Amino acid sequence: MKTAIEVFGGLAIFIFGMKMMSDGLHHVAGEKMRSILRIFSANRFMAIISGAAVTCVIQSSSATTVMVVGFINAGLLNLVQGIGLMFGAHIGTTITAQLVAFKITWLIMPAIILGLLLSFIPRQRVARWSETIIGFGFLFLGMETMSTALKSIDREVFAKAFQTFECAPVDGIIPVTALLGAVVAGMVVTMIIQSSSACTGIIIALGASGLIDIYTAVPLVLGSNIGTTVTAQLAALTTNRVAKQAALANTLSNIIGVSILCLTFLIRIDGEPVFFALISWIGGGTARQIANAHTVFNVLTTAILLPFIPFIAKLCEKIIPVKSSKVKYQRLEQHLLNTPPIALAQTTSSLRQMLKKAWKMIDCSIRIYSGNDEKNQSMVRQLEKREADIDQRQKDITEYLSLLMSKDLTRREAEQIPMLLHCTNDVERIGDHAEIIRSITEKLNAEKLRFSSDAEAEINLLHKTLANLADASIDLLAKNDSESLDRAKVIQERIFSMLDRSENEHLSRLNNGECRPQVGILYLELVEEMRKIARHLENINDRAGMFYEKLPNAAR
Fold first, then answer.
1. What is the tens place of the pLDDT at every residue in 253-263?
2. Is residue 133 within 8 Å of 111, Cβ to Cβ?
């Protein structure tokens, strides 16, 4: 009983340390995560390198594959790119096994002490590094605790309990029943604990304690590689069909890889299965051989399947076909909340789309007076529906940012949320002004009231300049450059100057009797609505200029 408690206690410390180290590294690299992942767009080779790099950083292939599912569901990745990234994640996750195979117990206490000391420094980036270093210490402390406890287990009792999975070759051939049993056992354990790295750590601890040999350890690791794909499958349950195809591709590629490797066990060199002969040739103790087998398996599988990525993608498209011609992408993707910089960039992208739709409503309402052609009339009939859409988008963004606030954010990330909320409210207000402008222009047409030629020229010029300001604001929400901000500020100054001048000149026309009072009042109301819209756009530009100094480039 005592030994069991020590084993499970060691496992708990190991998993806690791995999560702590992963979270720390994730936050340290968080702001650069999007830049790393953007490399994938080059080709499938770069996708694999990007996937491996990200997984090495965050120490979790499950987290990477869930992120990829989120990217595909948000329309940031296509299926082929996603599969490449997942292949890279399979390679990147082997770094954890390589780490725990090292016998560096002398580093455990220094790492925990150093991490604790760094945690007292009141700087968030240093605190993240302290979290990573303490996690590193706990990772190896848990591994050492498990290994020590396992060494005290009665080997004969353990061997009897584990004989179903004993895969030592008989006359050079691994028993099929034992092989399948070990693969299934590794798969089930990984599905339960939701971490192939943790499962591999347990297997390495068992191997280092002499309780299992390399022949049994490798099938357990193979099953672990299949079991870890359940995380992506669960993440894909609420996504579009393309994201479901990616999750399926992840599972299929691992099953195919495991099947290919198991077939190589039939090929023998000097009476030993060729794969184990290769691992033996590479050298090292049992723990190191298990880690090497994990790495070699994933590298070889990726190399073999790399040319077939398009075929795997087409196969998944056949199994899970897209039922409609247009795939629905979810911009505010829930799975991206665990990567705040990317979630913020996606929120900005959604805000940009919302602003484009709000401006179309304003443009349509102004055109009712003089440019109300058939196309514009069709849009007028949809204004109420469009306004409801704007309101829903505001609600969605607000709810998404509320969920993001519950995550572990850096100070800079936390500062962006109130600004994005204010910008969302400004865009919603712009949509509301469309209805007021619509009532003004429809009243002019219904009562057959016309502005003077000078007033019409001023309104047309104001409309054009306001459109330029809206375009500048939309561009600013897509780019992180001073040029876009400077352009927006120049147009802002111009529009407010023009609005002041138009009001003054129109008041002069009223005083001189050049304009009927009824028409003059509607003109001033229309100009005031344009002023309010310009102020909302100014608010958006000012805030975008602040938060874009710190955010990655938003998705277009």
1. 999 999 999 99
2. yes
